Amino acid sequence: MADQVPVEREIELKLRARPEDLHRLKTAPALAGAKSSTRTLENTYFDTPDLVLHGRGVSLRVRRVGRKLVQTLKAPTDIGETALARPEWETPVPGPAPDLSLLPAEALTVLEGIDPQALGPVFASTVKRTTCLLTPAEGVCVEVAIDQGEITAPDGRTAQLTELELELKQGGDAATLYAIARDLTETAPLWVETKSKARRGFDLATGAAGGWSKADALELPRDATVEEAFARIVRHCLAHMLDNEACALSGERPEGIHQMRVALRRLRSALSTFRDVLPPEQAATLGAEVKWLASSFGPARDWDVFLSESLRPVDKAFPGEASLRALEKAARAARERGYVQARGAILSMRYTRLLLDLGAWVDGRGWRGDPARDALLDQRVTDFADAMLEKRHRQARKRGRGFATLPTEKRHQLRIALKKLRYAAEFFRSLYPEKAVRRYLKDLAALQEALGRLNDTATLHRLVDELEAARGPAGWRLGAGMVLGWRGHGAAQAEGELVADWKRFKETEPFWAE
Hints:
Hypothetical Protein Pfu-838710-001; 16 helices
């Protein structure tokens, strides 16, 4: 392999736009005075038959611009420093197929085990790109590319592309890109796009578009500082949420909204966990916006759970019951109202600006400035994790005293304390021996989920009250009574098991104490 090709570090922010807004964006005040040029890019993406590169988060393409052919290899993003940067290698090639021998030795780790002969085209894209250069400050240069085109799969299926790419070419930092993006949202609606063209192409080619996903495993280096750990955790939460955005918008699979809510809960928990090392006013402002977004998804999720976990077992036990059919119809109408609210939140500029503000805050280390807090941020995260886990553990045990006779409200408070403990344990689990963490989390999760089922029972009453307030067609009240009775009976039967779950958790050894 050639050794003379340097690795470039692409720092780029992508934004989705509507096709009808492209003209306005090209003449936006934020781009005033910048000269632009337009060209057509024809791209072919390559991988092995079993998509090994895609599985590694790697993309390999050959791009034609006029008569020129260039191959580009991009490695995965490392969320440790910024969510916007990823390594890439670019070299001219003599033909339409990639030539790995022209890539540098540094790319060997990315391509380890790849047989060049096994590489073949997976999908293609054609993009009309208009670019201009901005100089927001002395020594700083940002390229703004406005793309419109489509991705084409081998079977002829297509996906439209309408997006902006803001790439840092010289000087500045990621905060520069977030600031320009925020200015552009004043001209036309824009949405943060975390999926690369390659990722969307593979989704189209494999039929994975619109799917949902759980959070990937979070890895924190043992020598990380508190600040580095916090930044990684926030980026991890945001990536998890955005990975499920398309699924939530479609409303076809309940897991889309559910996973976005989980990501937001984790994000709120991260802000709470690191509260003592963050400026109170910043954490409060961002926390309030995150809470707004999470609450926007609440009704959709509540009705999804009602239909799948509360109504379904009763419906199976009493097939053909007319009042249950009427209840299902009323619940589905309420669910759709919930999804309208959720979609409205996701498509709002308040949502986009929250993402841009969070990105700028994390990448720009916007919490720095107070010497005392900065000193805490520079400490090793292992000591911080030990202290925080012990604090959360003690709080949960205190709230669970006399568990067998705790009233409903006290058990709800315990459930919240356990949830905070569980999220903190999951944030820091990579810092500890996996076997001990797994045992602790197993007992913690069993107790939290059992308490969650009790909370679902309490939620049922609220949902039924909402149906009453909606004043829709009657006929469902008997069915609602059947569901409430079924769920209440189940909760009473599970009481003994719930008490046993609490005792088991109390006896579980904390893994950070080993």
